[in-house]
Amino acid sequence: MGDNTLVLGHRVSEWCGHAPVLEEDIALANTALDLIGQTTLWLDLAGKVEDAGRDADRLAFHRDVWDFRNLLLVEQPNGDFGQTIMRQFLFDAWHLSQLTALMESSDAQIAAIAEKSSKEVTYHLERATDTVIGLGDGTEESHRRMQNALDLLWPYVGEMFVADAVDEAMVAAGIAPDPASLRAAYDTLVNDVFTVATLTRPESDFGHRGGKSGKRHSEHLGHMLTQMQWLQRAYPDATW
Amino acid sequence: MSSPEAKPYPGTQAVDHGKARADEWPLFEIFIRGQHGLSHRHVGSLHAADAEMAIKNARDVYTRRNEGVSIWVVEAAHIAASSPEEKGPLYEPANDKVYRHPTFFDIPDEVGAM
Fold first, then answer.
1. Could you give the ipTM of this predicted complex?
2. Which residue among B5, B46, B52 places its CB closest to the CB of A23?
3. Which end of chain A is more exposed for a tag (fewer CB within 10 A), N or C?
């Protein structure tokens, strides 16, 4: 959870000062800040659970690509504005149902973080949904760009719903939901939005894997980390 | 603010310093209620494609620091305003009518601040 919000938060922050309109620039910066704030909560908790003396900063800035456990979707480059919004929508739709399920977690700290985050993510999803519809059912050009974004990013959706050994252990302990159990509601939500947005869902549900397991990230994550982690690499252990 | 779209939006208005860009979203005026019991106050303006989007933009632009519990938006073109040139007839007649201010009454202490 923390790596997803960290990587996507950084990606979205790349728009700061570059968004097509001022209002959208501020909205995207807010989203990025929400995600980075959630990252602090998740990675702090991860550091405590690990109990090896690593805090959130250490986990964020002192790990390399293969140690990251984020979905491949969130590390994909921003592309054009439509691609960024489509990535956000595809993630938010999953993120909110994941958080809603985590609010019932047997772990009280996880449930608390999920509850706090879910309010922010409810708004992210609302905003992303409106924008996907606005641009999908917009001009010829905006429609084309949104359809291209959907075709490009859809193969990264499947990974959200594939369980590995860690997921199974979490389900057994009542900590987290079975990823596959979230798929039906996800499909309903995105199908409805695509219909209103006049977008065509790709036929194949083939999904790239390897981000969540850390086995095979796309080439983009390493490039992103060189930017995100450069200060800690250039000035190790620098603090405020 | 300005959108990269090529078509004009309805309600886009010419402004004093020149014609508004035809590809600009309409201007909305934003009113925010700081806390329950207070009235909505004008806080600024922004551009949006429609009212719903204006509320979302206002949430992101004007309530980042916990400023509000309620947002009103209204398209600027729908606001009727008095003309600055009429300020003489509109406001000066009130200048010499001090008796309209309730300053001539003794207010009992129990009433408190009014």
1. 0.80
2. B46
3. C
